[in-house]
Specification:
By secondary structure, the chain is an alpha+beta fold. 53% of the residues lie in helices and 13% in strands. The protein has helices at residues 15-33, 99-115, 128-139, 146-156, 161-185, 189-210, 221-231, 237-246, 252-270, 276-282; strands at residues 41-44, 58-63, 71-76, 79-87, 90-97, 141-144. A hairpin with a 2-residue loop joins strand 4 and strand 5 (90-97). Helix 5 runs antiparallel to helix 6 (189-210) and helix 5 packs antiparallel against helix 9 (252-270).
């Protein structure tokens, strides 16, 4: 995964060409909000994650009290987005992030992270939009005010996002694997096979978070798992999950045991990233 500041160019070409394109994108975004150029503006999403294809949107974010002028405007929690232009056939979307909403997200995320140090369970940010914003702030490329982007990362605590996602995914994966075993024991093979796919998704997310990958959208899961597997010569939990997702096993019971062992290894290898609840309660259920 691309660390902050190592964003690929939005199109093929030299570094000089990429800089020109970034400047043009920034100008387009600022025009859509009526900005002065002193605002925090950053590029994020599949482009900065190294996942973009020829149809992927170019997603730009600005923080402040602005209205964005464009088409197909959508409002989400703390975010207002519009398509403002097209670049080589790709939509250029500008999202305005409300500072007050970011403050509420900061408080909620800090509380969730603080809860990881306890042994009574995991407090979850259940809204994927919140996770998306945290991830995109964490991995975005500043087009204006890089100093402010780093300040925002620090304020939101995005450095804690991998550990948070690891703990949440570990709990979800173990719970679903337990459900699968129950379905198998009661003779519901088809239901167990379906549940097992969900367990694999959570297991894969846990493995990715352990590697520092925080993309929240499941649509990219296979690409991300395959990329992580390639870093380990096709071995490890990410490779195991990718194979199982693409080729469901005939023997679900045997596959569950393999997944339990892989998940246990991820948790054990995570060290202090895994909180007390995961280390003492969740991990114990894996044997």
């Amino acid at each position: 995964m691309n660390a902050p500041g190592t964003t690929p160019a939005p199109a093929n070409g030299t570094a000089e060409h990429a800089a020109t394109e970034y400047a043009a994108l920034a100008a387009t975004a600022l025009a859509a909000i009526g900005g002065s150029g002193d605002e925090l503006l950053f590029l994020a999403g599949s482009t900065t994650d190294g996942l973009a294809n020829r149809n992927s949107d170019l997603d730009l974010y600005v923080v402040g009290d602005f209205r964005v002028t464009g088409s197909e405007t959508a409002a989400r929690q703390g975010e207002r987005t519009a398509t403002v232009a097209y670049h080589e056939g790709r939509e250029v979307n500008v999202a305005v992030l409300d500072p007050d909403a970011l403050g509420r997200l900061r408080d909620a995320f800090h509380a969730s992270v603080a809860g990881l140090s306890g042994e009574k369970g995991i407090a979850q940010l259940v809204d994927e939009d919140n996770l998306k914003i945290l991830h995109r702030v964490r991995t975005g490329r500043a087009l204006r005010r890089p100093d402010r982007l780093q300040e925002l990362r620090d304020e939101l605590g995005t450095g804690d996002l991998p550990a948070y996602l690891l703990n949440v995914a570990a709990v979800a994966a173990v719970n679903r694997l337990t459900d699968v075993s129950g379905e198998l024991a009661d003779g519901h093979a088809d239901s167990a096979a379906w549940m097992y796919r969900e367990a694999l998704v959570h297991t894969g997310q846990c493995a990715l978070a352990a590697a520092g990958v925080t993309v929240p959208s499941v649509k990219w899961l296979v690409r991300l798992l395959q990329r992580e597997a390639a870093r380990h010569d096709g071995t490890g939990c990410a490779a195991h999950v990718a194979r199982r997702l693409l080729a469901p096993p005939a023997d679900t019971a045997a596959a569950v045991e393999e997944t339990r062992a892989e998940l246990a290894a991820v948790i054990d290898g995570a060290g202090d990233q895994a909180g007390p609840y995961v280390r003492t309660v969740t991990r114990r259920k894996l044997g």
